[in-house]
Design a protein that fits this description.
The complex is a heterodimer. Chain A is α/β, with parallel strands linked by helices. Helices cover about 35% and strands about 25% of the residues of chain A. Chain A has helices at about 40-45, 70, 90-100, 105-115, 130-140, 160-175, 190-195, 215-220, 235-245, 250-255, 270-280, 295-305, and strands at about 1-10, 15-25, 30-35, 55-60, 65, 75, 150-155, 180-185, 200-205, 205-210, 225-230, 255, 260-265, 285-290. In chain A, strand 4 and strand 5 (about 65) form a beta hairpin. In chain A, helix 8 (about 215-220) crosses helix 12 and helix 9 packs antiparallel against helix 11. The relative contact order of chain A is 0.15. By secondary structure, chain B is mainly α. Chain B folds into 4 domains: about 60-150, no CATH class; about 170-240, no CATH class; about 240-440, no CATH class; about 440-633, no CATH class. Chain B has helices spanning about 1-20, 25-50, 70-75, 120-140, 145-150, 195-200, 245-270, 280, 285-315, 315-340, 345-365, 380-385, 395-415, 420-425, 430-440, 455-470, 475-485, 490-520, 530-545, 550-555, 560-565, 580-605, 605-630, and strands spanning about 60-65, 80-85, 95-100, 110-115. In chain B, strands 2-1-3-4 form a 4-stranded mixed sheet. In chain B, strand 3 (about 95-100) and strand 4 form a beta hairpin. In chain B, helix 11 crosses helix 12 (about 380-385), helix 13 crosses helix 17 (about 475-485) and helix 17 packs antiparallel against helix 18 (about 490-520). Chain B starts with a helix and ends with a helix. The chains are: A alpha/beta, B mainly alpha. At the A-B interface, helix 2 and helix 3 of A face helix 1, helix 8 and helix 14 of B.
């Protein structure tokens, strides 16, 4: 449904997107993740035909991105959703339906269905008097007035309360179920994990990882074991050796949690070493938990720094970036200015 | 095409709805109520007038005989009521008594008027005096022999002849003529023997007979022959009978523009604020559709208001047609301003600037309607002519309206260049936005060897440079006309040098500013070879387009000294050899080529170099202009 080949977008000397290639299948929810300035929004705007690529080709629903026909088959939700505040939701949505040549009776039905599903009741209230969440729902409804095949959503749940966020994410899943193709960007990796079938991770304008969320996790993350003991494990040579062999830092591996001690280790040999060390200290293991790496951890591993404004609940104790290794696909040969220019993401 | 029109109309319809939605209902109701009150007052006044209820009618009783010579005057004055002299008593049955002392033959010898010794009596006497004066005026106006009714006394004052270019003369005067000085004599300065013909002489439009051709000034005629040679002059040397009423009414056409551009500018900037208009760019509509749709209601409003004003003040289709380019320019300049402004605060400065500049451009020259061809710079002059019921030639109409109409189209084009996501929502200073808008109209010019000089792509890119320069001509023309209109009233020793340098600067900027944009935005490779190529391309574009200004010849602007200085003249080339003629024809091309190349080389370096080379190019150009003016005398 979407083919991106050799995409490059530069603003003067600044390269916002470099040699980007990816394809999105019909009925798929495709995620683009990355830190600020990674090139996510620029990529989405190129897909939406808002920004002209400097090089490369972008085809959406069988049309090149500069083809007006492509725009008829696409719905776009920008990161911000400022609306015409003097209009009401109904007049605003009818206006856009009109621009897409949607017959008024069809538009009425479509708008009513979207607003019903999004649970937006105040349809005759001025948009300027509405909350951010309500405005976001109107913007989402706007992206659907032309019944598009492809939806390009830039941070759809940005700045929304948890209830509205869940509603938006659930709605995105329903769009997939209805056969729509959705390209979705987010800072919040939890959102991406919960909705997307496949993702690309972008950093400094380049795609540095791609695939299914599980596949990327497998390639770039590792399972860890959290061993809880009732005493601090004795700092024995055997424990130090086991942690060192597994690449863990003995100094950081043991942490006091309430009245227990948690030792994070990477393999079962190290678990055994912790058990022995706890026994040496006069205690024992009270609990062992296995933890799969989150996309957050994977991102940290690939990019070498944490996601700004990341979702931390359930994602483990990732507090600082200490310079993880670059991903395989990462190409650091091209140096770029530190700050993107205005207009570039 | 029809689909496109439908889309434009659709945007226009929603723009109207949106603009309407932006006005608070209470405000709307208050405005409507105010309008109703004003209408009621006006309508009431008219109704009262129509039924003849005058509050000052029949206030004073005047005792006068029916056969008195003052009887008619009293009868015609609404405030006076005639009563019979017989039995009239001052202060009782009459406020004023007119006693006719008659001779034996019955004729009136003397008249005595006596008023009651009260304040009402004094007022009655004053009203009576005014009534008699008004009655006499009416009698004189009805007189067939107007010369006898309104005799004119002429006092001749002879003054010494002075040089045309001395401190006292002005740009409007014909220099170096052999005329008879201000006022002229009967044969040379006027067009006829008597005053009335002299006034009408301008209507002949025969420049060879006029005072100007003889070197002196004829008194400008009212309402005729505005562009004959006998009509040149300036406020410094003549006292023209300004068409004040027409001018005032013409100004009324400009007033609504100021309100329109406020609403329009806000609407355009509103799209840019917080990316509100971004979703529109994702629809199948092109930027041209969107802008046309957004602009259409304001153009329609301008046409509607202009038509209503024209009907109210007695103007015709010519007035509407003349004001339309002004309205479009107001809107176009506001559109560009709103596309470049970063905030509503900046937009306010832009709209005020647009308003002041365009009002000046439209109004100031129109003040000199019937006085000098400079007046035709402004379309408002056509309105004045229309209100005076005078005919306007097609050439004059074109001269007045074409620069503004073309300028409006090009301004819309300039703004549309940045009506895209990449430029629309960025917060750059206005100057950088201007450079962006210019750069998007250019194609890349890479450094190339001699073999690639005629490469088709390269030629197309250089063609776009020449075209963009040519597009600047209407603005250059407008700027130069504005300079002429502003400076022509000053003494030439001051204004000519200022004018020539100003014109040189305007033209050099027009030829090189987009080249600077091209280098700054990386469209052109920063090499001397590229600088020379784009400089020469720009010069050729300017040279070719400049020839379009030949239209000034058609309306006689170059008959003005300042007109020749600004636009040159082909007069006086008769008898020159073809080689000299060719040299004269291509001399400007050589000048433009050299000056623009110098500025382009500077532009390819950096801003400082560009400023320095632009100054150098301006000086060279100004020196050339001085030479040309000196040659032409």
């Amino acid at each position: 449904m979407i083919e991106v080949a050799g995409l490059r977008k530069t603003y003067g000397d600044f390269a916002a997107v470099v040699d980007s290639d990816f394809a999105v299948e019909e009925g798929e929810v495709f995620g683009i993740v990355g830190p600020n300035g990674a090139g996510k929004t620029t990529t989405l705007k190129v897909l939406a035909g808002l920004v002209e690529p400097t090089e490369g080709e972008v085809e959406v629903a069988g049309f090149l991105s500069d083809d007006p026909e492509m725009r008829r088959r696409l719905g776009f939700l920008p990161e911000e959703s400022p609306l015409y505040e003097e209009m009401t939701p109904l007049s605003y949505l009818n206006f856009f339906a009109d621009l897409y040549d949607v017959p008024s009776d069809v538009a009425d039905e479509r708008i009513a269905a979207a607003l019903d599903r999004l649970e937006l009741d105040h349809r005759e209230r001025r948009l300027g008097d509405m909350s951010k969440g309500m405005k976001r729902k109107v913007a989402i409804a706007r992206s659907l007035v032309n019944d598009p095949d492809v939806l390009v959503y830039d941070e759809p749940a940005s700045g929304l309360d948890p209830v509205t966020t869940n509603s938006v994410l659930e709605f995105t899943r329903e769009l997939r179920a209805a056969g729509k193709t959705v390209v979705f960007s987010a800072h919040n990796l939890y959102h991406v994990e919960s909705v997307c079938d496949r993702v690309v991770v972008m950093n400094e304008g380049r795609i540095v990882a791609r695939g299914s969320v599980d596949g990327i996790r497998e390639r770039h993350g590792e399972t860890t074991y959290h061993v809880f003991t009732d005493v601090a494990p004795a700092r024995t040579d055997a424990l130090a050796d086991a942690l060192a062999d597994a690449g863990a830092d003995p100094g950081d591996a043991i942490e006091e949690v309430g009245d227990r001690f948690r030792t994070v280790v990477p393999d079962m040999d190290a678990v055994e070493a912790v058990r022995a060390a706890a026994a040496d200290a006069g205690g024992g293991v009270v609990d062992i938990r296995t933890r799969e790496p989150s996309l957050e951890d994977v991102f940290l591993d690939i990019v070498g720094r944490p996601m700004p404004g990341r979702y931390t609940a359930g994602s483990g104790a990732v507090d600082a970036a200490d310079g993880g290794e670059d991903g395989d696909e990462r190409d650091g040969s091209e140096r770029r200015p530190a700050e993107p220019p205005e207009g570039a993401e | 095409m029809i689909d496109r029109l439908r889309r434009v109309l659709r945007v226009a319809r929603w723009e109207v709805a949106r603009a309407g939605g932006g006005v608070d209902r209470r405000t709307l109701a208050a405005a409507l109520a105010l309008l109703l009150v004003a209408g009621a007052v006006l309508g009431g006044g008219l109704a009262v007038g129509a039924v003849g209820v005058d509050v000052d009618r029949d206030v004073y009783r005047v005792a006068v005989d029916g056969d008195s010579p003052y009887a008619d005057a009293v009868e015609e004055a609404p405030a006076l009521t005639p009563v019979p002299v017989e039995g009239a008593e001052l202060g009782d049955s009459a406020d004023l008594v007119v006693f006719d002392r008659r001779s034996e033959s019955g004729g009136v010898e003397t008249v005595a008027v006596r008023a009651s010794d009260t304040r009402k009596g004094e007022a009655a006497a004053a009203e009576f005096r005014e009534a008699v004066e008004a009655h006499n005026e009416r009698l004189m106006a009805a007189e067939e022999n107007a010369t006898a009714a309104f005799p004119v006394t002429v006092t001749l004052r002879y003054v010494g002849r002075t040089s045309a270019l001395d401190e006292g003369s002005t740009l409007g005067e014909d220099g170096g003529g052999s005329g008879d000085g201000i006022g002229g004599d009967g044969a040379g300065g006027g067009a006829g023997d008597d005053g009335s013909e002299g006034d009408a002489g301008g209507a002949d439009g025969d420049s060879t007979d006029g005072g100007s051709a003889g070197g002196g000034f004829a008194v400008p005629s009212v309402g005729g022959g505005a562009f004959g040679a006998d009509t040149v002059g300036s406020p410094g040397s003549i006292s023209p009978p300004f068409p004040f009423v027409s001018l005032l009414l013409a100004f009324v056409f400009l007033v609504p523009m100021n309100f329109l551009i406020q609403a329009y500018g806000s609407s355009v900037l509103d799209e840019r604020t917080n990316r509100r208009g971004e979703p529109l760019l994702v629809t199948p509509l092109s930027p041209v559709d969107i802008v046309a749709g957004k602009t259409l209601p304001y153009v329609a409003a301008a046409v509607l208001v202009t038509t209503l004003i024209a009907v109210a003040v007695g103007g015709g289709p010519l007035s509407v047609a003349a004001v339309l380019p002004v309205a479009l320019t107001f809107l176009a300049a506001t559109f560009v301003g709103a596309m470049f402004a970063r905030s509503f605060k900046e937009l306010t400065f832009v709209t005020v600037g647009v308003s002041v500049l365009l009002t000046t451009y439209a109004f100031v020259p129109a003040v000199f309607t019937n006085v000098t061809p400079v007046a035709l710079v402004s379309p408002l002059t056509l309105v004045v002519f229309d209100l005076q019921g005078e005919a306007v030639s097609a050439g004059e109409a074109l001269f007045s309206t074409a620069p503004m109409a073309l300028g409006a189209a090009l301004l819309f084009g300039l703004g549309l260049g940045v009506y895209r996501e990449e430029d629309m929502f960025t917060q750059k200073p206005v100057a950088r936005k201007l450079l962006d808008a210019l750069a998007v109209r250019l194609s890349a010019v890479e450094d190339a060897g001699l073999g690639d000089l005629v490469d088709r792509r390269r030629l197309r890119a250089l063609g776009s440079v020449a075209f963009l320069t040519a597009c600047a001509i209407p603005f250059v023309f407008v700027a130069e006309l504005l300079a002429v209109a502003t400076l022509f009233a000053l003494p030439v020793t001051v204004s000519i040098p200022v004018l020539l340098v100003t014109i040189a600067f305007v033209e050099e900027v027009a030829k090189s500013v987009h080249l600077y944009a091209g280098f700054e935005r990386g469209v052109f490779a920063r090499t001397d070879r590229v600088a020379v190529a784009v400089g020469l391309a720009s010069a050729v574009g300017f040279f070719l387009a400049e020839k379009a200004t030949a239209v000034v010849q058609a309306v006689g602007l170059t008959e003005l000294y300042v007109g020749r200085a600004a636009f040159g003249s082909v007069a006086g080339v008769e008898g020159l050899s073809p080689v000299v003629l060719a040299a004269l024809l291509f001399a400007p091309l050589v000048l433009h080529g050299f000056a623009t190349t110098v500025a382009a080389v500077g532009a390819s370096r950096d801003r400082t170099y560009y400023a320095l080379t632009l100054a150098l190019a301006t000086l060279v150009h100004a020196a050339y202009n001085f030479g040309v003016v000196s040659l032409h005398g």
